[in-house]
Amino acid sequence: MMISDVLSRAFVLREATRIHEVLKGSRTTGRRSGGANAELADPEITESLRHSIVKEMSTTRKMGGDTKRRAATNSEEKEAPYISSDPIISIVQSALELYLQDPDTVDTVEVDTTNPSVTDRRAAQKRSGRRVFEQFSVTDIGWVSSVVAIGIRKFKDKRPFNPNPAQDLQIGDNCRVIIVGDWGSGIPRAQKVAMEMRKHVVDAKNQGIECHVVHLGDVYYSGFEFEYRERFLPYWPVLPTEADAVRSWCLNGNHDMYSGGHAYFDYLLADPRFARQERSSFFRLANKHWQILGLDTAWDDDGLKDPQDAWVRDKVASNTQKTMIMSHHQLFSAREQSPDVGRVMRAKLKGVLELNKIDAAIWGHEHRCVTYEPHDHIRYGRLIGHGGVPVWTDTDSLAAPGVFQSNKSMGGGVNERFAYMGFAVLNFKGVEIEAAYYDEDGGLDLREVLK
User: Fold this and answer.
1) CA 224 and chain centroid, separation
2) Which residues contact 134 (CB under 8 A, 6 or more apart)?
3) Contact at 8 Å (CB) between 270 and 305?
4) For the chain, which residues make up each domain, given as ranges?
5) DSSP β-bridge partners for residue 186
6) How far apart are the C-alpha atoms of 237 and 194, rounded to whole Å?
7) Which of 217, 273, 282, 337 has the greatest number of C-beta atoms within 10 Å?
8) Cβ(438)–Cβ(423) under 8 Å?
9) Cα end-to-end span (Å), the chain
10) What does the alpha-carbon distance between residue 361 and residue 431 come to, in Å, rounded to a whole number?
11) Gap between the Cα atoms of 87 and 151, Å rounded
12) For residue 74, what are the contacts with CB-CB under 8 A and spacing of at least 6?
């Protein structure tokens, strides 16, 4: 699970700068001992890291609504947990986590109970201001630098897109679909979300109800294999022994692609629980009344890689059911007032949208739970991106077209409250869908009917 040090913006950018120095030194001197291999530390990789550091340092940080929150009892400003949206910096975070988790690493990890709203692990033996690597040999920073260089190489040489959708799957007219987004952090609260989801899986099995569980994408920080192995699969609410009885599905998210998408396609989707997806990032589930089209908006970041737009048009034209699309990225937002939000997806699906052929759209990416009024030809727009990332509670009023946002909070001082995490359960009952939105403690936030 995540280590608190690697959720510190100052720590990550400081270590990223040091890693850049190592890579630059390897490139200019050809030094291999204690540094990244010269063939990995090429000018393009080194420059990519430098550019990301400069960009991140010059960008006003905004996470979960506010850049910083001021404690009510003192003047210390505290930042929200840092999960970068920059691919290269995310790779640095992955490399630092991998180093700190390595059993052969001199820096060890210990339990930290000071901030349970975020995570329960930190680098051990920390002294004020001490850099992780400074009292050890250059091999440590060199090893991490090599991982960063390899990660950047993977990001730039991403895994080829699978243009073939998974074979259509007929689902029951009465079935259950459990949805969680941005869940792959592995922190204790994300594990709680999974345990609550698990209760609904077990309930469906006990009632003989067909059940599917969908992840809307994003395993942090960069979609490396070790992150799926340690943060995702052990806590997924469907057991390995249930692979045939309960179907699992996972969309592609931008963080899944930060290391090139290799582990998403070839490791996660190779797990027997996701076998029905056939290592494809788009799929169709359908019954008599509804069809669900799962889309990949991350292989082309915030886009819609061909031939998905033609595939959607065909599925809408050749079927009479109501259509629900699921994606990682949003079609529109009450939080990001920019014409660029969902621009590519809206343009590629313009025809079916303008004909009012998309009845519902469910997405993640923003780490909130929001329902929308009918907007941009979508009757039911729903954001379910609050599965596993700790963010401040949103104290601002919800802008149109937003209707409902879960504002439950926990921990910290008056002005340092963390938003609750959660998930959604859709019970398909003929033409109607009974939708319920739950928090990480199993509390009900909202219940509604889609029809």
Assistant:
1) 13
2) none
3) no
4) 4-156, 169-450
5) none
6) 5
7) 217
8) yes
9) 39
10) 16
11) 10
12) none
Largest CA distance in the chain: 68
Backbone angles phi, psi at 183, to 5 degrees: -95, -20
Angle between helices 138-156 and 9-29 (to 10 degrees): 90
What pLDDT digit, counting tens, does each position of 232-280 carry? Answer: 999 999 999 999 999 999 999 999 999 999 999 999 999 999 999 999 9
**Cβ neighbours of 336 (radius 10 Å):** 14
With beta carbons less than 8 A apart as the criterion, state whether 384 and 362 touch: yes
Low-confidence ranges of the chain (pLDDT < 50): 29-36, 39, 62-77, 126-128, 135-138
Overall residue count recorded for the chain in this entry: 451
**Residues 169-450, CATH architecture:** 4-Layer Sandwich (3.60)
Residue 365 backbone dihedrals phi, psi, to 5 degrees: 80, -55
The 10s digit of each residue's pLDDT in 331-367 is: 999 988 888 999 999 999 999 999 999 999 999 999 9
